[in-house]
Inverse folding.
């Protein structure tokens, strides 16, 4: 059912002229696998190939949120099914992603994406706030590119145009 739902969605995206498929903020590796496979079915039907980027959320212990799949297990599961880029996004800041980035850099056969929040979200006066300044986020991502060879970086929750400008 999940594969069919995503197949249907990707058929519409292809008809709309999409350039790539991004499955982001994924928390269940089996759902992600089914989603990608549904997208692949749609591409076969339309006789097109689009790049597929799959990103999962992790905690500071390199475990996918909700079902606790280890990042290495998630990588192994996904890199063998025909995606083009694997990575992590959302939920935490880059300071808590270092261990995960190290693991991905060590074991991935695919290009890697890292799209963190502007820090771990905190609540202040009833509002969600992200504490990483643009330069701090950019410094972490620069290190990920230089030290670990990360191929794609960006910003998720709490990032502003100033964050993206600093990253660029």
């Amino acid at each position: 059912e999940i594969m069919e739902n995503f197949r249907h969605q990707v058929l519409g995206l292809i008809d709309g002229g999409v350039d790539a498929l991004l499955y982001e903020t994924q928390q269940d590796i089996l759902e992600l696998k089914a989603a990608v496979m549904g997208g692949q079915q749609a591409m076969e039907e339309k006789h097109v190939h689009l790049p597929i980027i799959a990103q999962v959320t992790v905690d500071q212990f390199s475990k996918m949120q909700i079902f606790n799949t280890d990042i290495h297990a998630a990588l192994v599961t996904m890199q063998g099914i025909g995606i083009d880029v694997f990575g992590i996004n959302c939920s935490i800041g880059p300071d808590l992603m270092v261990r995960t980035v190290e693991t991905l850099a060590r074991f991935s056969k695919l290009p890697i994406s890292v799209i963190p929040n502007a820090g771990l979200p905190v609540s202040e006066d009833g509002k969600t706030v992200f504490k990483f300044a643009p330069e701090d986020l950019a410094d972490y991502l620069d290190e990920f590119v230089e030290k670990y060879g990360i191929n794609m970086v960006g910003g998720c929750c709490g990032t502003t145009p100033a964050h993206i400008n600093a990253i660029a």
Observations:
- The mean pLDDT is 97.
- The two ends are 40 Å apart (CA to CA).
